[in-house]
């Protein structure tokens, strides 16, 4: 017989409280009697909460979604191993923690080996959890029948989260039982196809990079426009997407909260509604990694080989001095100097001195790639990429405005030159496809201006 526990179910008794003689003193007994009648076991210590209104129900949902989000933000790494042999099944990083998995699994195995039973818990009671401290992280471990799960967390796990872990482990062993049995027999097997189940079970998609759907139906658009918070969410999501190809829920919440002044749980609840309706869409974290790698292989790699990536550094003595200086730096000195360049770049960027900021960032990237500071390469490369977009945006805006002014003065040659410059920036770095309609319009304007010269 399979036994199930069902939590957080709602029940509408169908009676008006003004007309019920049992309200409110005997409500819980009525609910227990009804759910027992339909076959549920009510002998255990169940919790029954009364919701007086739809507003209260929404508050409860807001709270549940908030705790889901807090739980997933707490997860750094999910590790699955075979229980008896300690063979690694899967290592799934949720957010950047720079944890050496081999050292971590060795640390876990050492703790298990030194325990009297050779197991995390008493084998007759696999409902228990084992908690350890590792560097600045908390480890939450639990044994199933065949496998062991270890979660690397920023903070302590909540009781609700522990229940979720227990349920996940039980369901994972049932769902992938044949695969686990084969692993135990042959010793090697790929479990990457089980990652989606992990993502779904722990709501990890909430920390994925997000994009907006290209197709929002008129009905959804009408609902969004009626909901001020959802409208602000979409507006700020579009603003974030103007500078990057994705956004994160945390950043979006911060932006929206500055305007709507509501509790983050209320904003998150509205974001969650848009996620459920596929208006906000999670983009797999692997896509982001690919983009970082792609960037590293082009611009960053060229810097590592002492090839200048920007014309603004071509005649700059600073980069030549840096090349000489880098030869005598040790790793720690190089890291401090790299961080100093990044700070200078940030200061210049805040002051809108973009060319100067670009110089400082590119010097930082030169050191990051030359000394193989892998965790910094992607970050600095993205900063440069975003700054490039800002600069190109300014250049496009300047040339369009200058072209329009020249056209009004009937200075058609200058007008054409500025529009051609705008097209060049729109076509920059293979982005012509995304700007195809803008480029076509500008080309038509240029043809029209050329006719004025004939």
Explain what this protein looks like in three dimensions.
By secondary structure, this protein is α+β, with helices and mostly antiparallel strands. The protein has 4 domains: 50 residues, no CATH class; 138 residues, Profilin-like (3-Layer(aba) Sandwich); 76 residues; 162 residues, no CATH class. The chain has 18 helices and 7 strands. The strands form 2 sheets. The protein has a 5-stranded antiparallel β-sheet with strand order 2-1-5-4-3, with helices on both faces. Strands 6-7 form a two-stranded antiparallel ribbon. β3 and β4 form a beta hairpin. α8 packs across α9 and α16 packs antiparallel against α17. The longest helix is centred in the C-terminal third of the chain and has 35 residues. The chain is extended and about 90 Å long. It starts with 26 loop residues before the first helix and ends with a helix.
Q: Could you list the spans in which at least 5 consecutive residues all have pLDDT below 50?
A: 121-126, 295-312
Characterize the main sheet.
Answer: 5 strands, antiparallel
Number of strands: 7
Alpha plus pi helix count: 18
How far apart are the termini? 89 Å
List keywords for this structure.
454 residues, alpha+beta, Profilin-like, 4 domains, 5-stranded antiparallel beta sheet, two-stranded antiparallel sheet, 18 helices, 7 strands
């Amino acid at each position: 017989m399979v036994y199930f526990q069902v939590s957080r179910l709602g029940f509408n008794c169908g009676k008006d409280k003004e007309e019920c003689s049992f309200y409110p003193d005997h409500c819980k007994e009525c609910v227990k009697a009804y759910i027992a009648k339909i076959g549920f076991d009510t002998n255990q210590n169940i919790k029954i909460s009364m919701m007086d209104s739809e507003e209260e129900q929404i508050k409860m949902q807001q709270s549940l979604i908030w705790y889901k989000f807090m739980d997933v933000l707490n997860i750094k790494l999910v590790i699955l191993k075979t229980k008896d042999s300690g063979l690694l099944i899967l290592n799934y990083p949720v957010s950047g923690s720079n944890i050496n998995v081999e050292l971590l699994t060795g640390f876990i195995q050492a703790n298990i080996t030194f325990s009297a039973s050779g197991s995390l818990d008493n084998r007759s009671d696999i409902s228990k959890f084992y908690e350890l401290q590792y560097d600045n992280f908390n480890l939450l471990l639990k044994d199933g029948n065949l496998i062991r799960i270890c979660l690397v967390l920023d903070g302590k796990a909540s009781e609700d989260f522990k229940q979720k872990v227990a349920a996940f482990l039980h369901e994972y062993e049932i769902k992938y039982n044949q695969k686990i049995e084969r692993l135990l027999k042959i010793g090697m097997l790929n479990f990457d196809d089980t990652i989606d189940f992990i993502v779904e079970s722990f709501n990890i998609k909430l920390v994925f990079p997000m994009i907006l759907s290209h197709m929002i139906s008129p009905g959804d658009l009408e609902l969004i426009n009626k909901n001020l918070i959802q409208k602000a969410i979409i507006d700020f999501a579009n603003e974030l997407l103007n500078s990057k190809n994705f956004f994160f829920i945390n950043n979006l919440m911060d932006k929206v909260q500055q305007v709507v002044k509501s509790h983050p749980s209320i904003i998150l609840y509205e974001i969650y509604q848009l996620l459920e309706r596929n208006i906000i869409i999670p983009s797999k974290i692997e896509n982001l990694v690919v983009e970082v790698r792609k960037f590293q292989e082009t611009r960053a790699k060229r810097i590592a080989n002492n090839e200048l990536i920007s014309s603004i550094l071509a005649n700059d003595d600073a980069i030549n001095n840096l090349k000489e200086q880098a030869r005598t730096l040790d790793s720690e000195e190089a890291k401090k100097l790299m961080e100093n360049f990044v700070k200078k770049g940030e200061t210049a960027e805040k002051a809108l001195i973009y060319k100067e900021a670009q110089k400082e960032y590119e010097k930082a990237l030169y050191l990051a790639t030359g000394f193989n500071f892998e965790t910094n390469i992607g970050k600095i490369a993205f900063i440069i990429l975003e700054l490039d977009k800002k600069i190109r945006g300014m250049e496009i805006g300047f040339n369009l405005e200058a072209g329009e002014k020249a056209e009004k003065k009937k200075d058609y040659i200058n007008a054409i030159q500025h529009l051609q410059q705008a097209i060049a920036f729109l076509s920059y770095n293979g982005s012509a496809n995304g700007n195809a309609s803008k480029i076509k319009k500008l080309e038509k304007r240029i043809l029209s201006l050329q006719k004025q010269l004939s």
